[in-house]
UniProtKB/TrEMBL annotation:
The keyword Signal applies. Pfam families: Peptidase_S28. It comes from the Eukaryota. Gene3D superfamilies: alpha/beta hydrolase. This is Uncharacterized protein. Belongs to the peptidase S28 family.
C-alpha cells in the first residue's frame, strides 16, 4: 500500500488521532474528487470538469458520512446514523469543512 503524506493524520501522533483515540473513534482521510485516484472520468475535459464544484465536494462529504459502514476492531461496524462526525481541515479543506457544516 502506498504511503501518503496524509497518513500521519491517522495516528495518535497527531491531535486528530489523539481526539479520535480519546473518543473511541477513527480518523479518515477522504480524497477530494479529481485529485489522486478519485477522478470520476478518464479525461479532464471541460465537460467532465463541470462536476468539479464546491457543492459537489460538499455533497461527496455528506454522502460519505451518511452511507459509510466502517469496519471496526472486533468486527463491529459503525453505522452512519450512529456515528458523530468531526470534520477538520486547514486552508481549502478547512473552508470546505465550514461550508459542509452550514449544509
Amino acid at each position: 500500500m502506498m504511503k501518503r503524506r496524509s497518513d500521519g493524520y491517522l495516528t495518535n501522533k497527531s491531535i486528530n488521532g489523539l481526539i479520535a483515540q480519546q473518543q473511541k473513534g477513527v480518523t479518515i482521510v477522504i480524497e477530494h474528487r479529481f485529485f489522486g485516484y478519485s477522478n470520476p472520468y478518464d479525461d479532464l475535459t471541460s465537460q467532465s470538469l463541470a462536476v468539479l464544484t464546491i457543492q459537489q465536494a460538499i455533497d461527496d462529504l455528506v454522502y460519505f458520512a451518511t452511507n459509510a459502514d466502517l469496519p471496526m476492531p472486533g468486527g463491529d461496524a459503525v453505522k452512519p446514523g450512529q456515528a458523530p462526525w468531526v470534520l477538520i481541515g486547514g486552508s481549502y479543506s478547512g473552508a470546505l469543512t465550514s461550508w459542509t457544516m452550514v449544509k
